Amino acid sequence: NLSGGAGGVASGFVSSGKRGKGLAFDDVDDFVNVSNPSSVNFNQQDFSMEAWVKIINVSSGGIIVGKSNEDLATRQYTMGYTASGTLSTEVRNGVMVEVCVSPVGVRAVADGSWHHVVVTVDDSGTGTTCRGYVDGTYDFSVSSANRVGSSNANLLIGRREVKFLEDWFSL
C-alpha cells in the first residue's frame, strides 16, 4: 500500500524510473512491507532476487530487499549493498546458521546511476551457491554445505524488519 495504509508505506511512484515509473525512498523512513506470504518463503528451494536500483546516498550500506530482521534466528535472505557501495547478500537457514554471506562485490551499485542487480540462490539439496550480478555481469559467488531454511520474518523492500540506521537506503 503506497498511500500509507496497512501493509507498509512508501513515498510513491515517480516518473523517473528506469523503465516507466519506480518507487522513491527518502533514506529516512520509507519502505514497503509485503508481509509473510508463503510464496516468498523459499525453504530449501532455488530462488532469485532482482531489482533496478539508483542508489544515491551510501553511508554504511543498506538493504534493497529481504526477508530478514535483526534476530539471527529468523533471518532468511537479503540483497543489499555495502558501505563501499557494492552488491551484497546474506542467506541463512532460519536458525542462525549462515548459508551464504557474500564477500564484498567488486562492481559499484551505489554511484547515482541505474543498475540492474540480481542475486541467484541455488539450493542443490547438498549445499547452496549464491551468485551476484550487476548489469548482467558476474560479480561474486559464495558456496556453503548449508541449505536455505524458512523464516517468519516479513518480506520488506528498503529495510530489515527492525530499523537500524544502516538498513535504510536511498534510491
Could you give a quick summary of the protein structure above?
With 171 residues, this protein is mainly beta. The chain contains no helices and 13 strands.
Strand content: 35-45%
Morphology: globular
Structural class: mainly beta
- Average residue-wise pLDDT: 78
Number of beta strands: 13
Determine Rg (CA atoms, Å). 15 Å
Alpha carbon gap, first and last residue: 19 Å
Could you list the spans in which at least 5 consecutive residues all have pLDDT below 50?
Answer: 1-11, 163-171
* Tally of helical runs: 0
Largest sheet: 7 strands, antiparallel
Helix percentage: under 10%
- Widest sheet, order of strands: 1-4-13-6-7-8-9
Written as H for each helix and E for each strand, in order along the chain, the element string is: EEEEEEEEEEEEE
Verbal overview:
There is one protein chain. This protein is mainly β. It is 0% helix and 40% strand. The chain is built from no helices and 13 strands. It has a seven-stranded antiparallel sheet with strand order 1-4-13-6-7-8-9, with no helix packed on it. Strand 2 and strand 3 form a beta hairpin. The two termini are 19 Å apart.
How are the SSEs placed, and which strands pair?
Elements: E1 8-9, E2 13-14, E3 22-23, E4 31-35, E5 47-54, E6 62-67, E7 77-81, E8 87-92, E9 98-101, E10 114-123, E11 128-134, E12 137-144, E13 155-157
Antiparallel strand pairs: 1-4, 2-3, 4-13, 5-10, 6-7, 6-13, 7-8, 8-9, 10-11, 11-12
